[in-house]
Specification:
Blueprint lengths: L2 H10 L13 E3 L37 H4 L13 E8 L6 E8 L7 E5 L8 H12 L3 E5 L16 H20 L7 E6 H14 L4 E7 L16 E6 L7 H11 L4 E5 L13 H70 L1
Parallel strand pairs: 4-5, 4-6, 6-7, 7-8, 8-9
Antiparallel strand pairs: 1-2, 2-3, 3-5
Length: 351
């Protein structure tokens, strides 16, 4: 195992979290980001041995595609060493929104991921820890400040849905301009926890396969099943069977309505927030497994889109090359014909 994972384990023992506040593109190594909650002997960014075909699945009580449990061969653990962190301001004036972008430095696959936080906001250590780890696996992860610097409180006024929808739309446009329009990524992915997990459904229903190619919702709240029919891409739902805020029956209804390869993964005796806020060693294990299932779901979905995009680009380039070759042959024929005629004239002139 690489030094990165060992360093992360050592830093975890400090129980502190260093907020990433960068105004310029700078590298964040394991020495500059300490992660809380994880015990010293817990390897936060450790990917299970590649010789193991499957991860343990004893606590999953719903059927899961085998491809989501397999660990890919050839992933270099050392590649998960550097992630850049950049604080952004998207938009202008009163409509601007703060965000944090995490980018893989060594193994970047070019895919953009929009991560919608829970009610504790985009600066919460658990949210940034999760975003950091997703970026560790090759992604570009944008975490917008959906609560405008003021995480949820019981006495706060209700969030204006339209304002939040506008902020998500602005963040999506920024990612499209940054990754999709630049030809780096064919589609974006969206991940959400808790309140953000519920917004994943709304985002995909509005988008209808325009910008996003895949979604992951962790124990989403305040979901509206009536809009599920508008979703045109696969969604992975991860939750526990002991979570009253996210009824499994609602998830299954939404999954059935969406279809398109969507899946519901339910963990036995797990409550709200276990995947990104594990509170016990047992929850740590399930959180690790949930992360791997999510990672493989994203890899299968987004990488296939990249593959299709590359196939189309290759086909276009081959067609253009064929046209160019025909043009060259045509010009060569004209040149040879011209030389032949010139030679004939020269022969006649010499007679």
């Amino acid at each position: 195992m690489g030094s990165y994972c060992r360093d992360m384990g050592t830093l975890a023992s400090t129980g502190t979290y260093a907020s990433i506040r960068r105004r310029s593109n700078s590298s964040i190594s394991s020495s500059s980001l300490s992660l809380r909650r994880r015990p010293v002997n817990y390897n936060y960014c450790f990917i299970p041995p590649f010789s193991s075909p499957l991860l343990p699945s004893s606590n999953i009580i719903s059927k899961v595609s085998c491809s989501l449990l397999k660990v890919e061969d050839g992933i270099d653990d050392e590649a998960c060493e550097l992630v850049s962190g950049l604080e952004l301001s998207i938009g202008e004036g009163a409509d601007s929104i703060n965000a944090c972008l995490f980018k893989a430095m060594k193994n970047n696959n070019g895919c953009g991921i929009l991560l919608l936080s829970d009610i504790f906001g985009f600066e919460d250590s658990s949210t940034r820890e999760f975003a950091y780890r997703v970026a560790c696996n090759g992604y570009n992860v944008l975490v917008p400040d959906l609560f405008r610097g003021d995480p949820w409180a019981k006495d706060r006024p209700k969030i204006i849905p339209q304002r939040m929808a506008n902020d998500i739309a602005a963040s999506t446009k920024w990612m499209v301009d940054e990754f999709v329009a630049a030809g780096i990524s064919k589609k974006l992915g969206v991940i959400g926890f808790c309140y953000g997990g519920g917004r994943v459904i709304e985002v995909l229903a509005r988008d209808q396969d325009a910008c996003f190619g895949i979604g992951v919702s962790f124990y989403g709240t305040r979901m509206d099943p009536s809009i599920a029919s508008d979703i045109k891409v696969p969604v992975l739902f991860i939750s526990g069977d002991n979570d009253p805020l996210c009824p499994i029956s609602v998830l299954r209804d939404i999954e059935t309505t969406i279809g398109r390869g969507s899946q519901v993964v339910v963990f036995r005796e797990r409550g709200h927030g276990f995947a990104h806020r594990p509170a016990s060693p047992e929850e740590d294990g399930d959180a690790e497994q949930a992360f791997m299932i999510m990672r493989n779901f994203l890899n299968d979905g987004l990488h296939s889109l990249i593959g299709k995009s590359l196939e189309r680009v290759t086909a276009v380039l081959e067609a253009k090359l064929q046209t160019l070759m025909l043009l060259v042959e045509s010009r060569r024929w004209d040149f040879d014909n011209c030389v032949s005629e010139h030679s004939s004239y020269a022969t006649i002139g010499s007679q």
